Here is the input.
Amino acid sequence: MKIKAIILSLAVGATLLTGCGAKKAAVPAPTPAKTEAVTPAKTDVVTTASVVNTQAAFENGISSKGTWIVAIIKDLAIDKDIVVDGEFKNGKKDTSGKELLQRKIALYTQDADRKVTARFTLTAPKLTFNSPMGSIEHGTFKGDLYVSGSNFQLKDATVEGNVYFITAEAKSTFKMDATSKVTGVQELKK
Here is the structure.
């Protein structure tokens, strides 16, 4: 009788251990949440990307309450001046652990290997880029671009118009790669 009790106890214990230890609950990856800063001098928002196909959604995405990256998925024409505002964290950190700022207008789509699959054109009379660490990437902007934020970049992008820098710092920190071009002037304009 003792042997049956021991075997039964071992069987129940093994079943409990197997059932309780075999599966781990899936924990979704954290998604950065939108947060407002206490003072305007600090970064005011941390967000995820925004994929848009309308003027209203694009304008919301580039606002100070928008997202760090706004990606259009078709050509988009806006009939008024538009402004990119706010400082945003992109969810990455530098080697010292400091969160990185970035603001990007993505004029393209890409595949799982990050290969550009389609390029789009954004048209507006005037685009003012106030956010620091900004970029326009892999497409065309038609209109005049005004840059007041530092460290602005064109990455594989075309500006069919002029690029005006509002500050000397904006001009001195501006970069564009070899595949980018500006059809008009690039000058300091206050």
